[in-house]
Write a structure and sequence with these properties.
This protein has about 240 residues and is an alpha/beta fold. The protein has 8 helices and 10 strands. The strands form 2 sheets. It has an 8-stranded mixed beta sheet. A two-stranded antiparallel sheet has the order 2-3. Helix 1 crosses helix 4 and helix 2 crosses helix 3. The longest helix has 19 residues. It is globular. Bound molecules: nicotinamide-adenine-dinucleotide. The site of nicotinamide-adenine-dinucleotide has 25 residues, from helix 5, strand 5 and helix 7. This is Redox-sensing transcriptional repressor Rex. One of its GO terms (biological process) is response to redox state.
């Protein structure tokens, strides 16, 4: 996964309704905006977050850096550095409160607020995304889906009725979503991205294999599974 615009600098545009409350154990950051973090650190925070939710579900209330690090294959030193960068420190002999970490990492990653997300393109990929139930747990609510294929328009997938892309502007202009997922062919991605930005969308998850050139105030994350496979192939060669 690669991030182009705004490079995980969410401070460039504060989404509406971002909670400013910080944990009550003295782990407040200097202001309410998320800290600027290198991309690998953001990826690791996301993994900690996932494991912390699992721990909470299994009834664990505290965890030390070595244990949490082991769950995601990260050294205790790296984990402590990541958590310290977002203003959280563990207590000697006790470790970290699972609840506090979930709250703080959730704030930093934006998962402690609700994000409205629209999907553009309901082909094979978009169809699977609409059916996926795991987004809402992290605060992402798919609210609308658009396509241009008449065989898709009017169908309901994952509880969302697919509408014609021509209706996008009228449907979204009064209440633009925070985020949009682009699951459309590369040829149309730039035009649709510009339309969405003009409507007020501030973040795009782009699956189309094209580099979008947008205002630096718009965050773009490109998902490219083919590149990830290349990275994997490279890694496999390196370890053999
Ligand atoms: N990066 C990845 O890991 C990865 C993996 C699979 C697919 N992709 C990319 O994701 C995109 C979607 O892939 P897919 O397999 O679902 O393709 P698909 O052809 O099955 O679906 C694309 C859908 O977009 C719709 N569409 C076309 N133009 C549109 C527009 N202007 N507005 C709204 N909808 C429009 C089409 O009608 C179609 O339903 C492609 O760009 C593909 O290259 C990326």
């Amino acid at each position: 996964m690669t991030a182009d615009h705004a490079n995980f600098d969410p401070s460039s545009k504060a989404p509406a309704g971002r909670p400013g409350d910080c944990p009550s154990d003295g782990t407040r950051s200097t202001d309410d905006r998320p800290p600027q973090l290198p991309r690998p650190a953001v990826g690791r925070l996301s993994l900690y977050f996932r494991e912390l939710h699992r721990l909470k579900e299994s009834g664990t209330s505290t965890i030390n850096s070595r244990q949490l690090g082991q769950l995601v294959n990260v050294s205790a030193a790296v984990l402590r550095r990541d958590l310290s960068a977002i203003g959280t420190t563990g207590r000697r002999g006790v470790g970290y409160s699972v609840d506090t970490l979930i709250q703080r990492i959730g704030e930093v990653l934006g998962s402690s607020q609700n994000w409205e997300v629209v999907l553009i393109g309901v082909g094979s990929l978009g169809d699977a995304l609409l059916r996926y139930r795991g987004f809402s747990r992290l605060g992402f609510e798919l609210t609308a889906a658009f396509d241009i294929d008449s065989s898709r328009i009017g169908t309901t997938i994952g509880g969302i009725k697919v509408r014609h892309a021509q209706e996008m502007e009228s449907a979204l202009k009064d209440r633009p979503p925070n985020l949009a997922i682009l699951a459309i062919p590369a040829e149309t991605a730039a035009e649709v991205a510009n339309q969405l930005v003009a409507l007020g969308v501030s973040g795009l998850l782009n699956f189309a294999p094209v580099t979008l050139k947008l205002s630096p105030r718009v965050a773009v994350v490109n998902v490219d599974l083919a590149s990830e496979l290349q990275r994997l192939a490279f890694a496999v060669q390196s370890v053999q």
